[in-house]
Amino acid sequence: MEIYQFVKYNTGVLPEYSSGFQNNNITICYDLEDSIQDILEPQNTPGLKKYYRSLLETIIYRNYGRLKNTSIGLRLNPVDTNELLLDIETISKISTKIKIKSLLLPKTEVADDLVELSGLLYASKIMYREIIPIIETKKGMENLPSIIDFPAGTLKKIAFGHCDFNLDNDHFPFYHQDSDKYWSWIEQIMSAIKTRGLLFLNSPYQKLNDDK
């Protein structure tokens, strides 16, 4: 089992627990995408993302000694957005201090999305271990066979984002992990990747306080 633990970083201070996961099976992740947005006032979102990128840089610069043996992951903004280009600028800076393990690409819909991201990273001379496409749309699910085929042999993992997938399919209320519908989606993904030896990253479970 591999764990991708997303941490809050809204204070610019490294959470004490996040530097203790010096374990190859645990990746500490910072989100630059969905968790940073103003839903009511969307015009404020670019400013929020700029602020959080600055916080991330501050955390890395102040704590790179503590993080040097920690697996770091980043959830980026989707391709064809200016926000992704700004993400790349930030990653280019922090990658001089720490080793980046995982780059998660939300709303991956076609193999060319991976090509574009790979090209941007190459142009910026950014070193990383893996790109993980996140399937979150109808189009992404339909194109999953071609996504896992390219680039040939380089993909190791596929992730699923069920909230955005629900939205894209006009499902409300959402189907979560306690529904048969959710697991039918998982079966669809698993049937596509099982012969490729890919690791499947399940969508975040949102009801951790619901013991029943």
Report what the structure shows.
It is a single chain. With 212 residues, the protein is α/β, with parallel strands linked by helices. The chain has a single domain (3-201), classed as TIM Barrel (Alpha-Beta Barrel). Helices cover 38% and strands 17% of the residues. The protein has seven helices and seven strands, in the order ββαβαβαβααβααβ. The chain has a seven-stranded parallel sheet. Helix 3 links the parallel strand 4 (100-105) and strand 5. Helix 1 packs parallel to helix 2 (82-94). The radius of gyration is 17 Å and the shape is globular. The mean pLDDT is 92.
Strand and helix map with partners:
Layout: E1 3-6, E2 26-31, H1 45-67, E3 71-75, H2 82-94, E4 100-105, H3 111-123, E5 128-135, H4 138-142, H5 144-149, E6 157-160, H6 162-168, H7 180-193, E7 199-201
Parallel strand pairs: 1-2, 2-3, 3-4, 4-5, 5-6, 6-7
Helix pairs in contact: 1-2
Quick take:
The chain is of the alpha/beta class. It is 38% helix and 17% strand. Strand 2, helix 1 (45-67) and strand 3 form a beta-alpha-beta unit.
List keywords for this structure.
single chain; seven-stranded parallel β-sheet; 7 helices; 212 residues; TIM Barrel
Strand content: 15-25%
Sequence of secondary-structure elements: EEHEHEHEHHEHHE
- How many domains comprise the coordinates? 1
CATH topology: TIM Barrel
Poorly predicted runs: none
Q: What integer is the average pLDDT?
A: 92
CATH superfamily: Phosphoenolpyruvate-binding domains
Number of strands: 7
With strands numbered from the N-terminus, the spatial order across the biggest sheet is 1-2-3-4-5-6-7
**Briefly, what CATH class?**
Alpha Beta
* Class from helix and strand fractions: alpha/beta
Shape: globular
CATH architecture name: Alpha-Beta Barrel
